[in-house]
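Translate structure to sequence.
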């Protein structure tokens, strides 16, 4: 009498994948609701007012701008870790059946990786580009191992020669920035520039089968746990309403109300102030309105690599920006255009 053993792990993996795909579209919606809850200072009536007037398209645009650099990071890290798991297993198909990480890497189309690399190249800061090149050479080497396991000469070129050559070229190109970073005491910037070129060739080959799961799944689990926290922290601080200043004359004098402009209708202008208070200003009292620019992002590092600031992305460098002038509209500072008649200043 024989006993047939049924392996239920592939079915469980598919069930986990189905649950993941079902819950994934709800994550942006949860972020949008939390953003409004955070903006309303946890006041339910204010949040309901914002839900009524805040444009979903504007919030989605703010979400995309805030998270545009994280999406390619997730794609490239999953492809790299999953590729290492597949090439380290004696049977890649069995590894893909048993591991959601391996299945993701095996089924990920090449065009998705290409789009992720292009998006990261435009949106990542210059100091992160060596890490991007490290992931690219690792994915190229792992793909060669998966698809051409018998081409030994090709594998030597793809997994050793190309990563080492690109790493040397990259080190030569960023060397001036490494020296300046070390002399300025910015050790983290120096490590981001020098470590990835040295590690690229180490990520292109297999690891011992017993250590493969430990070397791939635990980093993926830690990244999965950290990603929602990072995404939430970034988006909760992303602006979704325009900063504005409204100059009003309420009979007692001319004053300025500053805050985020919620809506303007036929009767009133609604402004959300910094403390969470909502002010309804009758349009008959409004003398003028102006948009106040966002504070200019301070440059956290003065290190440059051949003229390229390490904390600046290619998109920031190439995209047109509004010229910064020394003149600030006095209404954005809480002062009326006619200071001699000003009786008070709004928050």
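Result:
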């Amino acid at each position: 009498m024989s006993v047939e053993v049924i392996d239920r792990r592939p079915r469980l993996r598919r069930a986990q994948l189905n649950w993941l795909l079902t819950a994934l579209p709800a994550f942006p919606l949860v972020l949008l609701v939390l953003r409004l809850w955070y903006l309303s200072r946890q006041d339910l009536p204010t949040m309901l007012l914002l839900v009524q007037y805040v444009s979903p398209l504007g919030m989605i645009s703010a979400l995309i701008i805030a998270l545009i650099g994280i999406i390619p990071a997730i794609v490239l890290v999953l492809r790299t870790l999953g590729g290492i798991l597949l090439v380290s297993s004696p049977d890649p198909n069995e590894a893909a059946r048993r591991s959601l990480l391996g299945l993701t890497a095996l089924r990920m189309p090449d065009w998705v990786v290409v789009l992720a690399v292009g998006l990261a190249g435009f949106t990542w800061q210059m100091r992160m580009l060596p890490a991007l090149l490290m992931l690219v050479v690792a994915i190229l080497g792992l793909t060669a191992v998966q698809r051409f396991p018998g081409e030994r000469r090709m594998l030597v070129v793809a997994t050793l020669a190309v990563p080492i050559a690109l790493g040397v070229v990259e080190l030569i190109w960023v060397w001036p920035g490494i020296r300046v970073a070390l002399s300025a005491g910015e050790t983290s910037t120096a490590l981001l520039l020098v470590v990835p070129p040295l590690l690229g060739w180490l990520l292109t080959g297999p690891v011992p089968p017993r250590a493969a799961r430990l070397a791939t799944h635990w980093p993926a689990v830690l990244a999965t746990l950290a990603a929602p926290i990072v995404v939430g922290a970034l988006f909760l601080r992303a602006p979704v309403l325009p900063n504005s200043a409204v100059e009003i004359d309420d009979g007692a004098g001319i004053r300025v109300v500053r805050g985020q402009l919620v809506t303007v209708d036929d009767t009133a202008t609604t402004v959300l102030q910094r403390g969470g208070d909502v002010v309804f200003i009758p349009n008959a009292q409004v003398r003028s309105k102006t948009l106040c620019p966002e504070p200019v992002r301070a440059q956290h590092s003065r290190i440059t690599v051949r003229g390229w600031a390490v904390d600046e992305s290619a998109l920031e460098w190439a995209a047109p920006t509004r010229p910064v002038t020394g003149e600030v509209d006095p209404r954005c500072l809480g002062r009326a255009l006619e200071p001699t008649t000003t009786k008070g200043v709004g928050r």
